[in-house]
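Quick one: structure for this chain?
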Amino acid sequence: MNKSVVIGIAIGLLLLGGIGILVFTLREGKNSGDETVQVRRDTLLQLARDYLAGGAYQQALDILDRVLAEDPGNPEALTLQEEALRGRRSLELAAGEEGAVEEVSEVSPEAAAAQAEEEAARRAAVEAEAVRRKAQEEELARQSEALRMAMQAVNDLVSQGQASLRRGDFAGADAAFADALERMPPGESRFASLKLADMAEAYYNGYGAFPDNPGAGDAPDKAAAGANRAIQLDSSQALPHYTLGKLSRDRARQEKDRAEAARQWNSAIAELREASRLDPDNYTYSFELGRACFSVRQFVDARQSFEAAIRLKPDSEPAWYNLGGTLRAIGRQDEALEAYRRAVEIKPDYAVAHREIGRILVARGDSAAAVEAFTRSLRYNPNDTASLQELGAVQSAAGNFAAAEASFNRVLAVSARDDQTNYNMAVVKMGLNKNAEAVDYAKRAVEAAPSNALYLYTLGLACEAAEDTGEAITAYNRAIALDQRYVRPRINLGIIYLESGFTDEALNLLQEAYRMEPVSFEVNNNLGAVYARKEDWNASVEHYEKALAADTGNVTVRLNLARAYVGAGNLTRARDAYRDLLRIAPENWDALFEMGKTCVSLGDSVAAKEYLRELLKENPGYAGKTEATRILAGL
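Got it. Here's what it folds into:
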């Protein structure tokens, strides 16, 4: 899942002795129960001012419409309405300008996904805040004028502190929040709890925006104290549990000690689960609970939380994306694919979701669809090297080496020393018969990761392809030295030694490989060839038979096995082997010729004539025509 840069938060309240005990004074007062039209109107106007301060212009306009419906000439409402309209127009103009400029984002796909998730959470938080403010508005309207004024003063101070934090002014927030606590009306524990929760969450967000601010150092402790006090005053509140959950989550991410990190994760999940229980209709609480559960591999619980978030907000692309990741983790690939597809239906430019779709399609073996998915990912994030690498790998596996070469070139333009991409490029260059270039890229991969035996083996292959046998031998031996169980470089070295006439050296290497992989086609096929060279025909037959068992359709192995039977003097088995081969490959002229000769050795002149005449008829230009004609003349 995506990492968050948020670490912790604070609430500007007095701490005694550094132990996080929250101290505040409540002024005395009394409830009168009076409820007037003016109280309601003032409350609505204050709510509109709060929305304006937070940049929520449309919400402010909705509130002001209600005021003006009752009092069309209200001067303050008209002034606020004009300010809200200006603010909304500014946002629309800014959005239009941004849409007119096409810039390539330098943000990584993981960071882009995190930003998308945080934006979704921000939108959900705004909606939740609107619900909270409406509840506060209704509560205020029921109070007496004196109590209303006291509460309104607290609201104003809390809003002032929140605005200070949005600017990174922690000292200003401390002062405003302290004043708010000093003015808190007595006997209103729920109201006090609401305000404490607001302060704690505001500090959390402020610290997240300005983590390096010198005034924010003790913010997490203050935030925890404020949230805990809010819960003490009113245990039915969800928001302070949410704040505490995020604090524990952030500590867990920073903690180096595994046991302590696990304890913090458990605390985070417990707090987030309690927030979701208390406010089951809050999308953000369910979503963040799912992310926390995923982080500790509690995938079943994570799935339930993400599905709950989707029920609350079906158009949340981050929830669908994270559900997809969770389903992949529990092995439900088809459902994961559907979740990712829902994410890109909602947000077509969701680059990382397209990339995940590509990965699932690769696992399914659907290369064409995977290429399309990776291509879409790159359309929206051209610098996503992960998608480029995986696109190149799919293209290479499909034999489209030219396209793969272009993809890997784009990766190397960004990260020229990346070992995996240089390795992939070496493979592609060999596929394009650009063998000298393949050697260069393989060397770069080895230089970047000298302990990787696969890269050294690939360097050996490239050197062989470039006809530099000496360098190939060196590379293969280095690969074997790094990985004593690596069979492939032993096979290739064995072939080189066999072709160079060093039969015993080849045999030793291939016998070592055989002890590691006794059923390997390559090992047994090459051992058959080595024993044939040494004229140990029975051993040659044994290994060619094992090679054929591993690849029953291999014509070359069938031909070599038949020859080994001839060498071992088992002509009947040789005849049967040639007959089986000719059923599969009737135009294998060597097999047809050797079948005729074997029939001669078996005394079957009729069959010998039949095979040799067919050979000369079907392939009059056969290289062994002279010998075949001579044999026929003697029958």
